[in-house]
Fold:
Amino acid sequence: MVKTYQNINEVVYTEKLDNGLRVILIPKPGFKKAFVCFSTKYGSLINRFVPYGENEYIDMPLGIAHFLEHKMFDLPSGDDATALFARYGLDSNASTNYTMTSYLFSGTNNIVEGINLLLDFVQEPYFTDEGVKKEQGIIIQELKMYLDDPNDALHLGLMQNLFQQYPLKYDVGGTVDSILKITKEHLYKCYHTFYHPSNMDLIIVGDPNNIMTNQNNSIEAIFNLIRVNQASKKFTPPHDIKKSFFVEDEKVYRSSSNAKMDIMMPKVAVGLKLPYEKYKENQAMMTELKLKILIDAVLGPTSDAFQEMLDLELINGSLYYEVFIDGFCGFIKIQANSHKPRQFIAYIKEKLLSLNKITIDTELFIRFKKSVLGGFLKALNSLEFIGFSYLEYLYKQSDIFTAIELFSQITREELVPLAKYFVPEAISDYTILPKKFIANY
Structure:
């Protein structure tokens, strides 16, 4: 299947193989570098499911998707996949987020060899008791390092305020206790359930002529390369995956809390919980983009509010904000360093609640729509952004290129339905104070 996006000058080739693997090629003529990503629709959100070949739901330890990602690089030969990529002059990596686990590489040469290596090592799991035990120690140290980072601690604290049981409240890496519970049997169950080709996608972004040299039809040659690789392997028939998670309303679990750490200035975050919603095709990404317009307009660096926060010394020069929807639930997060955390919280809450009645004028709407759209279009110069984001939004039932085209056509009136999210019971705050902080917090 070939799909052309004329407004943004992109073309996407897609083919579903007999074993269920979806292969996506996004040609970028003239680029010397190529980016390849092999992903499974399995991230840290999924901890309760029916394993392949079984009939009952089980609960897996938190962080197991990330743990499995780490262990996939161990090969039966004793080699590490990262070292094999390096021999080809390729940079490799992997990542686990809430919705997917990805294995990726990039480079300018030996892309064919890299594709075969990527498919082969991800499709040959090798776990041992000794390897699991060793990895437990490594990941526990990693988790402790994150807990010692004030920004990570601030994010986690806010998520635990916002959500009652939904997995967004947990770190992608899990907890020390959950990591110690993981066994190789757990890993194999997760692997055989979620790493079937029918639950996975391979995306290639680059110039087909540079990837497949001396080929009359380089695009077809790339697809044939993958067909041959997959035809040499045996897979079980595709299967449905049954998953379960807690459905939440807009009410936060805890309206406010704080902690103390060894920092010089208070760090404070205000969050708005986006409740469970059944999004239609492209709706999750469109909602995310529309909310970014609102936050940009009300609190962005060119807004009156931003200058007022500087004048009132509510922020120490900068403000960070994020809008995230995982395809079911989500959040808006606004954070800053502030010597006046209470006042900052009150100010941000007031601004968020003011969006319960959306009154943005046409000129501002056009300006901030262009700002959000421009950021996306600029990012399309990055092969990594294109490949990773295409899959990330695909797993949220969104086509990033279609959504960008739809977003360019939205009107101010389409923001009005978003007012339903901005209610008091959906807002929480979390503050990290210096241990010696003595102001009237």
